[in-house]
Amino acid sequence: MQLKHYPLLLALGLLSSQAQAQTDNDALWMPKKNLCGGIIYQHGQWNHYWEGTFYRENLNIGTVSSKMAMAMASYGINDNLNAIVMLPWIKNQASAGTLIGQQGVQDLSVALKQHLLGRTLCGKYYFNLAGVAGGSTPMTNYVADYLPLSIGMHSTNGYVRAIADVERNKWYATATASYMLRSNVKIDRTAYYTTEMNYSNVVRMPSVANMMLRIGYRLNADKFVELIAERMETIGGFDIRRNDMPFLSNNMDALRTGIAAKWALGKGGLSLMGSGMYTLAGRNMGRSTMLSLGAVYQIDFNKKTIITN
């Protein structure tokens, strides 16, 4: 399987990073009646951030760090349709100041990934095209209006994604483009200021677009290494005001790069995977470094157990 830094939009750029396993962001598939599940651990931190376009540090919060443990599973409904489920537990804290760290279960994510064009040979290249539809919703009543330490935005989200993959002689490139709509969020105050005063406890959340390019070498679905470039764009929102705290509906943009790999251990179904991501540029985001490591195990339910007396 392959878990990616699926945009679970955490505060100021501590987004859930990706390790790798067949997920909603790659061109790999679980075969029919195969289940792959596992745990991903991720650690990220930053001590400088972009306040709008102004790059700065803030000694009142010091270094903001995030730890995540994510349970995930992918199941082959058939050879062309996969179901993917993810549920993270997150802990955020700051090394300085008086802000109290937050922790807890975040949002349940569910997605369906469908082949639009199966692995097709054209000349010397193999092409693959897929579509994804999915969404996420909060599983606990965590506090959203507490950035940069809240563990999520507490919105219910829906998204669609297109995936294109080309391969030749084990070398491949995978491009994805997605669009996410987010529901309004209710906060625990009756008024707030964005670019104007809002006398309400309801925050309208801007939508998010995401583009990614991965280039790598793939022996098979369980053995590969790849370089990653990712761009996230919030469509709307506003900048953090000078020396103010970030807010849910800020315009959060980021450009990241990194590396990821997966390697199967023998033929028993167990694989290890890991990734590292770094934020090159951003807007109302932290310049974060994120490292992840995980293990997944694949079970083939097509294999029949023969019982003998």
Average predicted local confidence, pLDDT? 90
By CATH, the superfamily comes out as monomeric porin ompg
SSE sequence, one letter per element? EEEEEEEEEEEEEEEEEEE
Name of the level-1 CATH class: Mainly Beta
* Number of separate strands: 19
Rg (CA only): 20 Å
Low-confidence stretches: 1-20, 305-309
**Terminal Cα span:** 37 Å
Query: Strand portion, in percent?
Result: over 45%
* Annotated CATH architecture: Beta Barrel
What about the largest sheet? 12 strands, antiparallel, barrel
Going across the biggest sheet, name each strand in turn. 1-4-5-7-8-9-10-15-16-17-18-19
The tally of structural domains comes to 1
Class computed from helices, strands and strand pairing: mainly beta
Name the shape in a single word: elongated
Number of discrete helical segments:
0
Q: What percent of the residues sit in helical stretches (DSSP H or I)?
A: under 10%
CATH topology: Porin
Question: What layout of secondary structure does this protein have?
Answer:
Layout lengths: L33 E13 L1 E4 L2 E4 L6 E15 L2 E14 L7 E4 L1 E16 L2 E14 L18 E12 L2 E12 L2 E2 L5 E2 L3 E2 L3 E2 L3 E14 L2 E13 L17 E13 L4 E14 L5 E12 L9
Antiparallel strand pairs: 1-4, 1-19, 2-3, 4-5, 5-6, 5-7, 7-8, 8-9, 9-10, 10-15, 11-14, 12-13, 15-16, 16-17, 17-18, 18-19
Describe the model:
- The model is unreliable at 1-20 and 305-309 (pLDDT under 50).
- The strands form 4 sheets. Strands 1-4-5-7-8-9-10-15-16-17-18-19 form a 12-stranded antiparallel β-barrel. The chain has a two-stranded antiparallel sheet with strand order 2-3.
- A hairpin with a 2-residue loop joins strand 2 and strand 3.
- The chain has one domain: monomeric porin ompg (Porin), CATH 2.40.160.
- It has strands at residues 34-46, 48-51, 54-57, 64-78, 81-94, 102-105, 107-122, 125-138, 157-168, 171-182, 185-186, 192-193, 197-198, 202-203, 207-220, 223-235, 253-265, 270-283, 289-300.
- It has 309 residues and is an all-beta fold.
